[in-house]
Amino acid sequence: MTIPSFAIGIAGGTGAGKTTVAHEITENVEEAATLVPLDNYYKDLGHMAFDERKNVNYDHPSAFEWELLREQLDTLLSGQAVEMPQYDFSEHLRKDDCVTVEPTDVIVLEGILALYDEDVNDMLDLHIYVETDADVRILRRIERDVVDRGRDLEGVMDQYLSTVKPMHEQFIEPTKKDADIIIPEGANAVAVNLLEEKVQAESSEMAAWAARSEQERFEREEYADEGYKQDASEKTGALDESEKTQRLDESEKTQRLDASEETERLDESEKTQRLDASEETERLDESEKTQRLDGNETTGSQSTSEKTEPES
Fold this sequence. Notes:
Rossmann fold; 7 helices; five-stranded parallel sheet; alpha/beta; disordered C terminus; about 60% helix; two-stranded antiparallel ribbon
């Protein structure tokens, strides 16, 4: 999944009914919702002895690893899976194994201080505070810790009076000011039904968004494929044109060479003709000279004859 999710934060005092609300408002969207328990992000105290871990104030904001929560919540909202830590309440210890959590249309962060951290609040689209009477909450706390988590009653009462009650008043209850919706008396049926409808609407909208996104991605890939084919065709055409140009250049070069050779042949023929004409002229000049000499000799003979005649 690569779509942004709708994120809900559900806060409230211990035993207020936060987990019940979280399950009921996401019941009808089933796998389209992911529950992120804030308790899973208690700091890893594996370096401490059990008796030391029992005395830690787990209702104080410093008990949580906020940086890890911010990082993993941001990753989920970006459409990527995370390896979420798990917590062992009977041992007050983070478990060795993590659980792979996939992003979904709706992500619900639930815990006593779900609305405490400003950075986390900025990631949430809907802020809910569950408000329940203190007497009801302490009874639920005792039942949960003794029955479900295997703790002794005296230890639970001591913890409530020394840390749970004062931390609620100092840190948890003041986060109501950041809530968009305050649900009175725990899992109030009217409020839960309205929130359930809201979650279903957001889930449907996200599903429609995903379908549009998938269609757009398909169209982009198809367009890119067509563009690649067009580019390839254009490149082939360009290569063909280049090859034609090269052939024309080669033909022009050949024609130029042929013309040059023809010119050279004509030049040689003209030179030969000139030489022949020169030789012919020389022969004519020699013949003319010979004729002149013969004429001179005849004239001389006649003069001698004329001079000799009178003596006879």
